[in-house]
Design goal:
With about 325 residues, the protein is α/β, with parallel strands linked by helices. It has helices spanning about 10-30, 35-50, 55-65, 70-80, 120-125, 135-150, 165-170, 175-185, 200-205, 225-235, 240-245, 250-255, 275-295, 300-310; strands at about 80-85, 95-105, 105-115, 155-160, 190-200, 210-215, 220, 260-265. Strands 1, 2, 3, 4, 5, 6, 7 and 8 form an 8-stranded mixed sheet that branches. Strand 2 and strand 3 (about 105-115) form a beta hairpin.
Length: about 325
């Protein structure tokens, strides 16, 4: 498999051997089934050993895997009749943050999400999933439309962070993100947020305020990327592995810290090894979420959302007083 990670290579090598033996068995009518079964048993054991002991940095690598499913992949597999909507009506259309209308079974919904590229050319067009201010302003325009027609909103997060370039700053990057966060906090519709890959900094939080926050098992959600943290704390970007350990950015850590509501388990080896199975798991979570909030008054939903974020984090007052939520 092209683009495999270092810790995936032993697995890929055995898979390659199994494929070669199957081809020989088929082409030359030889029976290598006993050898194939032994290799398959060894493969499953190796997968369990490797993927049950992944480090935070290895999960970050999986979140960035070149074969990992992207927002448009999940839209195609989970929703129907997707109609993409473009532009912020102020500056332009940001291809790093997409959105539009779709059906989830029989329910009309609004979808927003960061979109990376499948190759270098598309990544340049999509700006590697790093949105500009016009992306977040487009998002708010579509959120307002969803609120007007009482449509549930699903947000897929997959970004290393908002674009930090001069042009983006000149057009109000920080203001756009802050305004989007405030806007979502009071939005009078149901909001589900799912981190499917990278969840970096304010670029992620700009569409990350929801009633339920879910993170895929091998995704990450963090105030800063490991490389950025490494450059600030150690003045050395090569310390990203150590930074990932300190940031507590994995889904398991976030769940323990009560910063998210759910970790969505991935197929063995990561979402890229079975995108359809991953899509079915996400679909099940959306179904559960819609059922859970069905019939709940919108005033109560908005209030619960506000309290949810208000209660995040632990602080300690000066003078050694007890820590408070």
């Amino acid at each position: 498999m092209a683009g495999e990670l270092d810790f995936e290579k032993p697995i890929v090598e055995i898979e390659r051997k199994i494929g070669e033996l199957r081809n020989v068995t088929s082409d030359k009518k030889l029976d290598f089934e006993p050898e194939i079964r032994k290799l398959e048993t060894r493969l499953e054991k190796m997968k369990r050993e490797i993927f049950s002991q992944l480090t935070p940095w290895q999960r970050v690598q999986l979140a960035r895997h070149p074969k990992r499913p992207l927002t448009m992949d999940y839209i195609r597999m989970i929703f129907s009749d997707f109609v993409e909507l473009h532009g912020d009506r102020l500056f332009g259309d940001d291809k790093a943050l997409i959105g539009g209308l779709a059906f989830f079974e029989k329910t009309r919904m609004m979808i927003l999400g960061h979109q990376k590229g499948k190759d270098t050319k598309e990544n340049l067009i999509r700006n590697f999933g790093s949105a500009h201010p016009e992306g977040y302003r487009k998002g708010m325009r579509l959120m307002a439309m969803a609120e007007k027609f009482a449509l549930p909103l699903v947000c897929f997060i997959d970004t290393p962070g908002a674009y930090p370039g001069v042009g983006a700053e000149e057009r109000g990057q920080a203001h756009a993100i802050a305004e989007s966060i405030r806007f979502m906090a009071a939005l009078r519709i149901q909001i589900l947020v799912i981190v499917i890959g990278e969840g970096g900094s304010g670029g992620a939080l700009g569409i990350g305020v929801g009633d339920r926050i879910c993170v895929l098992e091998n995704a990450y959600y963090s105030v800063i990327s490991p490389e950025g943290c490494s450059a600030i704390l150690w003045k050395d970007r090569t310390k990203a592995k150590e930074a990932a350990e300190c940031l507590r950015l994995t889904a398991k850590d976030l769940l323990e810290l009560k910063l998210i509501d759910r970790m969505i388990e991935e197929p063995m080896g990561g979402a890229h090894r079975d995108p359809e199975a991953m899509a079915l798991r996400i679909k099940s979570v959306i179904q559960e979420y819609l059922h859970e909030l069905h019939g709940v008054a919108i005033d109560e939903i908005v209030q619960q959302r506000y309290q949810k974020f208000r209660q995040m984090g632990v602080f300690s007052a000066s003078g050694g007083e007890d820590a408070a939520q």
